[in-house]
Amino acid sequence: MRKWLLALAATALGSVSLAQGKLEIFSWWAGDEGPALQALLDLYKKKYPNVEVVNATVTGGSGVNARAVLKTRMLGGDPPDSFQVHAGQELIGTWVVAGRMEDLTSLYKSEGWLTRFPKGLIDLLSYNGGIWSVPVNIHRSNVMWYNPAKLREWGVTPPKTWTEFLSTCATLKGKGVEAPLAVGEAWTQQHLWESVALGVLGPDNWAALWSGKLKFNDPKAIAVWDTFGKVLDCTNKDASGLSWQQATDRVVQGQSAFNIMGDWAAGYMVTTLKLKPGEGFGWAPAPSTSGTFMMLSDSFGLPRGVKNRANVINWLKLLGSKEGQDTFNPLKGSIAARTDSDLSKYNAYLQSAARDWKNNKIVGSLVHGAVAPESFSSQFGTVMEIYLSSKNSRAAANAAQAIADQVRLGR
Amino acid sequence: MKWLRNLDSLVAVLTLLPSVILLAIFVYGFIGQTIQTSLTNWGKDPAQALAINPVLQFVGLENYKELFSGFIHGRFRQDLVNNIFFTVFFVGGCLLVGLSLAIILDRGPKGEGFFRTVFLFPMSLSFIVTGTIWRWMLQPAGGVNQLPAAVGLPEGRFAWLTSRQQVLQFDWNHLPLFTAWLIGLILLWIGISALRNAQVRRGWIAVGSAALLIGWAIFIGPRVQLLPFPEIHGFNLAFIGIIIAAIWQMSGYTMALYLAGLRGVPEELREAARVDGASEVQLYRRIILPMLAPITLSAMIILGHISLKIFDLIWAMTGVDNAPTEVPALLMYVTTFRSNIIADGAAIATILLLLVALVIVPYLYSQLRSEVRR
């Protein structure tokens, strides 16, 4: 009873911004993404000046190192107050099923977020009747990038479907472009696969794959690998030695015509390469996926048993607010998860992405943790390896299904 | 007097106790815990993987059986093959390069001290640094591939780290057959040489076991199927670049070992051989190299256990998730810390431990025995 009263008192105090104590934020936002996080932390400091904010960052793109550190901390009984995690199954399949997170549905209701975030997004965040994290940003996975000047020179247009893509690829090869499609190291090939799969299956079957209703060794899903194999014939042979930036560079420099990469590539081309959206680089939805927004999102949740619960709730409220999202996202190079953000703060690419976010059908990304738990997505590399070494669609599909059964996908 | 001796041994026990306790807990205790974990199903059920108090079930050797015969664990088997090929080429390369360098330096060229330092220097770098440098040099369009262009030849086009070609391919199902043949032939050779040296009992035991193994390989072996499907493994050419980098780093060390051995060969012995009319080649073949055999063994053990545990070099050169250049140590990391399948990770770790033990324990045993004899 006393504990409960204390918690109530703490929450009440929080709302009049007399909150005290500490708040440790665990993330992998360093380097280019550091300033965006810092802007958020500064905003928090302004609202709650008496709270000491600890920025615990573990570097490594996509959280490759941070996730391992987080696991040792959680297993060791020292959870950070709030940690960054890809929204969806990466959080749910690892931490929610293990009973380590608190349900945030009441927060969503009191802040009115249920109507501010698109329903497709809420569905991806929900599990077992609860909503488990607050998304800060939205990235799009199914984007095809190109260099408009080079396309004019070659006399081709961005293909609308995968069939069109393959004929464009043949045309370009005829004109001496060795590898019309640029890819990089292992995960970028998986990233390409998810766009091919979404295009071949369509949004409904893609979702059915992850709920377990469509088997990976169904003829429809096997067809994905057949198309993927043909698409791979259009790619560069030195792929596994290249980072995603180097793959994007190939397009910018005109060695390749297209690159399928998430829209952090826009951030790279605008900020690092100083290209103008629409002139220096162009974009289109990945072939056959127009009208569908394959999203991934960074989010924060509330672990059970944290020391500074009230401070974390204030942090989550800030993350979900319009002010918080519009502070963070223009700097990060992503769009707000809310549909009411102030578009004038964003560049031309992000404005077009935000429009699609409002109107398109929303599905989740495999590689970036939205639709499959880590136990599946990190073993997907094995499936890819089986395909790449055997070029056998059926073997890869069977392996994917075997892993899906092993990790109880969709159950 | 007796009392004093007791005090002496009491002091000895007390002095050793802290390190014995620490070793017992932090080495053997954790080895035990890893083995215990590998016999459970920790992580097979995602809800239990990272729960506060995971409910674990004992599954016996199921995880090991899966690793060696399960359909989706083909990647582990390829990794094992990778590691063994890597070990063979890396140890062989280091011994060859190290011995050649040592022989050259032993002949006392000008600037010997300088070159000794130069050759030994790579060893002072960490594998991460070596890996990063060589990764840059072996980029498909960079460094090493550009070298021929400097002298007017066409640029190299070999994909050092990104090749997907595989050579020396074999079917995993034939593994017991090959192993039986190999061990059988070695035993046969041991037996015959023992018989020649009139060690009758030892010779017949070896020949007998050899006959048994070879007989099995001829009559039963060809029909053994480990897997219900053929599974091709082999040596991935993408490893060549990694092997070069590893040899570059460790051959200087091997050279230092050999150099010490060569300096230990007494000058009188060389003189005597020369007086007897031995040519330089004969001198090395008949006198010096046989005297270096114990050094070769030590070097093989040290290099062998480094290469079986290799992790950081490959991490730096091709990343952690690049299947063509993966080894079990990397797969263990991915399985445990990314897929959360902790039991499988523990099983891979145990297999690695057994592999390294296979290399180290006989060596320690023979060392201890010779020390006791002394």
UniProtKB/TrEMBL annotation, chain A:
It comes from Calidithermus roseus. Residues 1-19 form the signal peptide. The keyword Signal applies. GO terms for cellular component: cell envelope. Keywords: Signal, Transport. Coiled coil: none annotated. It comes from the Bacteria. Belongs to the bacterial solute-binding protein 1 family. It is found in: Cell envelope. InterPro entries: Bact_solute-bd_prot1, SBP. This is Probable sugar-binding periplasmic protein. PANTHER family: ARABINOSE-BINDING PROTEIN-RELATED, BINDING PROTEIN COMPONENT OF ABC SUGAR TRANSPORTER-RELATED. Pfam families: SBP_bac_1 (PF01547).
Automatic annotation (TrEMBL), chain B:
It is a multi-pass membrane protein. It is found in: Cell membrane. PROSITE patterns: ABC_TM1 (PS50928). Pfam families: BPD_transp_1. GO terms for biological process: transmembrane transport. Keywords: Cell membrane, Membrane, Transmembrane, Transmembrane helix, Transport. Its main location: membrane. GO terms for cellular component: plasma membrane. It comes from the Bacteria. The chain crosses the membrane at residues 7-31, 84-105, 117-137, 174-192, 204-225, 237-260, 287-308, 341-365. InterPro entries: ABC_transporter_permease (IPR051393), MetI-like (IPR000515), MetI-like_sf (IPR035906). Coiled coil: none annotated. Residues 80-365 form the ABC transmembrane type-1 domain. Belongs to the binding-protein-dependent transport system permease family. This is Trehalose transport system permease protein SugA. The lineage of its organism: Bacteria, Thermotogati, Deinococcota, Deinococci, Thermales. The gene is sugA_1.
